């Protein structure tokens, strides 16, 4: 359903319009008018708050421009404790200076007032007001505001005017320290990487996370950079805290994804109390690193009827309040209150259900840059695209250039535009080189001096003969370790290590094309072949032969009409259709409670991951054997779900295992084809093992109760190893389920 606004009366604002239409304030119509003012995005359309046409959008903006800031603040589109907490960092005195302005007046002020005057009011702007004023701006106006408001990180030039930093993202399909280390060397060879060394881990096991933390920390220690930039393993913040407790001093800045409301944050296993406690512990130099993105709240079912822009702005309000708590913690510890807190907006990571085109990607990023800056935050961007969006490799370069004018603090940085672990498109090292050259941008001064000491750039900042050569960085690394072997021997050792890295499916960029900012031609060709291969995988179908090869296969399907519906409308793949639901109920009757573990297989976004030889069969065989050895009774059937997503597995668990009076742990192992793009044709295993009474409670089982093993294939995480790790994790989950007291929902159900 879309929002149509047929007319607007002279001088009418949003509240007047709602009153005229309904004779009283109507919360739903209010949400719809706010949403209708947004530039079009699929995510708003999915929840019924997108404008029906351009005339309706302009009328909504007219109404909004006439609305007083005080009236917006007094009518939050929804309320929860996160909204209240975010006001902790809100300056009521500064608010009183602007509260009587209209949103149109605020927009004009942001575009015309001097920079000092703009900075003087920022702390007085609440999140909903910031979201609403951004709705009124054109792309050009967003660039203008973003290009005049800057918040550098303390003691650095990261986020300052004229600077563009980089988060090195050295991801590995197997969390291999060698892959991670070499991608750092690779980035530094291009004079890229000055904000954070940040790895997305495959495994969230504390031991594995600790190994990655140690690898990153060791590189910084070796080069004497521990006071210049932090490192980070982007696991759940609780896991990072565990690693720090076990190995003090080895973690850097702490990471967490944030939602725009309490319910969305619970999906990430995040609560206000938890985040406040973590903020209070950050008394050292490095604080907190947050990631956000428009659409995450809605795709997890927690939109509260409110558009994506408002949710995103509230995430920044949450981050602003937590930043203040870090400052308080530093002051209490006797340090200067200089919180190193920044936000990375991961725009485009979710997929076409949020937005689909390159123009929408740019619009989203511009909105988020300005909202972050108006919250007083240092905001970076992951200008990214999944392979099922209508954004190409070449489109990303165009997007980056549109956004550089708005002054993001930093962008991601990888050897190519394709992430070898996450299977999505983002920013390469050489994109940074191009943007710096084109727009006259710099990196943090301390790291620029370091790159000059490395000899990859000269005193004038121009590339040297060592530019783009990670082997040269490795030689310096070994020299810092006191290694006196001849350089030729060290370079030969580097070549051997780089060959191993590439064999694990991690590209390294060595040298360049005709210009320093273009990929070496053979690597460019490899990148484009991976892109084309991903498109093939995305539109593949799971073969009958694969299903028939699974002993005891039971065919099910979701509500997706076809593969296109499944890809473009993910909720259609989250629930079984009526016939399949009835089939699972019959299966439960036949099982009669004999089994406590069930294997589910869904095609996912790359069905080839289940069809390739040596992929699925070894996992299933090893899993069954290992579960049996640990005393689990595994159902003989394999439930094969056509067009299935993760939540379809939760529905299977509820239908099969839900029992209000049973505290026994019951496990679902859900195998799903991952996003294509890495070349590994990998799949994931989602592991969930709560008590049967928890399965029985509607909504009690979601992603926060699930553990994940990603990157399973014959060329990354070996299927047999993944199966053994799955059983270990299920043992942990079951032990937790046995000792965890019933939730409020469980208690009510059992009463």
Automatic annotation (TrEMBL):
InterPro entries referenced in this protein's UniProt entry, alphabetically: Aldolase_TIM, EutB, EutB_dom_2_sf, EutC, EutC_C
Segment forming the signal sequence: none
Coiled coil: none
Protein name, as recorded: Ethanolamine ammonia-lyase subunit EutB
Provenance organism: Corallococcus praedator
């Amino acid at each position: 359903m879309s929002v149509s606004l047929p007319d607007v009366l002279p001088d009418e604002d949003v509240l007047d319009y709602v009153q005229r239409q309904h004779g009283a304030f109507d919360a739903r119509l209010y949400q719809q008018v706010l949403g209708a003012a947004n530039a079009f995005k699929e995510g708003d359309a999915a929840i019924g708050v997108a404008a029906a046409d351009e005339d309706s959008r302009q009328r909504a903006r007219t109404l909004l421009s006439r609305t007083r800031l005080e009236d917006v603040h007094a009518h939050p589109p929804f309320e929860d404790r996160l909204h209240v907490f975010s006001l902790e960092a809100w300056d009521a005195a500064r608010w009183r200076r602007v509260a009587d302005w209209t949103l149109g007046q605020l927009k004009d002020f942001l575009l015309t007032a001097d920079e000092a005057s703009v900075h003087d009011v920022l702390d007085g702007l609440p999140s909903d007001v910031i979201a609403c004023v951004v709705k009124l701006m054109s792309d050009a106006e967003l660039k203008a505001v973003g290009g005049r408001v800057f918040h550098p990180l303390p003691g650095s030039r990261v986020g300052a005017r004229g600077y563009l930093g980089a988060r090195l993202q050295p991801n590995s399909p197997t969390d291999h320290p060698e892959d991670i280390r070499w991608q750092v060397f690779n980035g530094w060879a291009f004079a890229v990487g000055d904000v954070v060394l940040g790895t997305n881990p495959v495994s969230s096991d504390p031991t594995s996370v600790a190994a990655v933390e140690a690898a990153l920390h060791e590189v910084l220690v070796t080069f004497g950079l521990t006071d210049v930039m932090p490192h980070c393993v982007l696991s759940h913040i609780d896991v990072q805290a565990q690693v720090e407790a076990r190995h003090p001093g080895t973690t850097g800045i702490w990471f967490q994804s944030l939602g725009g409301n309490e319910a969305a944050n619970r999906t990430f296993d995040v609560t206000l109390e938890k985040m406040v406690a973590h903020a209070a512990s950050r008394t050292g130099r490095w604080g907190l690193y947050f990631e956000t993105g428009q659409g995450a709240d809605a795709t997890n079912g927690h939109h509260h009827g409110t558009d994506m822009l408002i949710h995103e702005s509230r995430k920044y309000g949450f981050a602003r309040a937590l930043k203040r708590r870090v400052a308080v913690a530093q002051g209490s510890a006797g340090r200067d209150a200089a919180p190193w807190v920044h936000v990375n907006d991961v725009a485009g990571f979710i997929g076409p259900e949020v937005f689909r085109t390159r123009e929408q990607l740019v619009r989203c990023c511009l909105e988020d840059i300005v909202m972050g800056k108006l919250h007083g935050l240092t905001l970076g961007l992951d200008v990214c695209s999944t392979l099922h969006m209508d954004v190409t490799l070449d489109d990303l370069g165009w997007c980056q250039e549109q956004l550089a004018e708005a002054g993001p603090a930093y962008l991601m940085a990888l050897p190519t535009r394709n992430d070898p672990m996450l299977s999505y498109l983002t920013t390469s090292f050489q994109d940074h080189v191009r943007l710096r050259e084109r727009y006259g941008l710099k990196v943090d001064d301390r790291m620029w001096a370091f790159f000059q000491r490395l000899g990859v750039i000269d005193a004038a900042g121009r590339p040297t003969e060592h530019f783009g050569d990670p082997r040269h960085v490795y030689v310096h690394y070994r020299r810092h370790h006191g290694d006196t072997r001849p350089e030729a021997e060290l370079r030969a050792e580097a070549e051997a290590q780089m060959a191993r890295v590439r064999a694990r499916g991690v590209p390294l960029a060595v040298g360049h094309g005709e210009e320093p900012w273009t990929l070496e031609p053979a690597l460019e060709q490899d990148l484009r072949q991976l892109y084309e291969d991903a498109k093939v995988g995305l539109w593949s179908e799971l073969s009958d032969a694969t299903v028939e090869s699974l002993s005891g296969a039971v065919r099910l399907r979701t509500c997706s009409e076809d593969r296109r519906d499944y890809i473009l409308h993910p909720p259609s793949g989250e629930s079984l259709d009526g016939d399949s639901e009835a089939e699972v109920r019959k299966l439960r009757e036949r099982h009669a409670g004999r089994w406590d573990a069930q294997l589910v297989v869904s095609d996912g976004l790359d069905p080839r991951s289940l069809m390739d030889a040596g992929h699925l069969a070894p996992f299933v065989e090893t899993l069954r054997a290992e579960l049996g050895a640990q005393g689990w009774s595994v159902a003989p059937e394999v439930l094969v779900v056509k067009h299935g997503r993760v939540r379809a597995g939760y529905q299977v668990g509820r239908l099969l295992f839900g029992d209000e009076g049973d505290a026994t742990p019951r496990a679902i192992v859900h195998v799903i084809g991952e996003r294509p793009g890495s070349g590994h044709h990998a799949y994931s295993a989602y592991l969930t093992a709560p008590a049967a009474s928890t399965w029985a409670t509607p909504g009690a089982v979601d992603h926060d109760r699930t553990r994940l093993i990603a990157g399973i294939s014959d060329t990354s995480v070996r299927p047999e190893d993944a199966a053994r790790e799955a059983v270990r994790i299920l043992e942990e989950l079951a032990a937790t389920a046995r000792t965890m007291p019933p939730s409020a929902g469980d208690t009510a159900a059992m009463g």
